[in-house]
Specification:
Distance between the termini: 18 Å
Number of strands: 4
CATH architecture: 3-Layer(aba) Sandwich
Number of domains: 1
Shape: elongated
Number of helices: 8
Strand content: 15-25%
Strand order of the largest sheet: 2-1-3-4
Order of helices and strands: EHEHHHHHHEEH
Largest sheet: 4 strands, mixed
CATH class: Alpha Beta
Amino acid sequence: MITIYGIPNCDMIKKTMDWFKTNNIAYDFHDYRKEGIGAEKLKEWLSQVPLDTIFNKNSTTYKELPAEIKDTLIDEESAIKAMMGSTSIIKRPVVDDDGKVMAVGFKADKFKAIFTPEAQ
């Protein structure tokens, strides 16, 4: 089952869910704000995609972190703790299909290539 991870008021999440609805593709939505995210899921993703793909250094949340906290983000373990504590540092959306990262970020062309039958 496809799961879209993010926060509901995010424009990229809205675009992603609209794309899936328009293309009649079933999905579940995982709201970080309500459900959080566990270290196990983050480690699963990081075994498939690089840390800089998931960890969004361009996010307002990251940019507003004090330098002394940014300085402690030195490896995957410290980044996982930061993402669990401030889920808005995670790039959105993460589209997961039964544990496999299918996409990070909204890219309609990539979604079409991956999820629509005519593209396969």
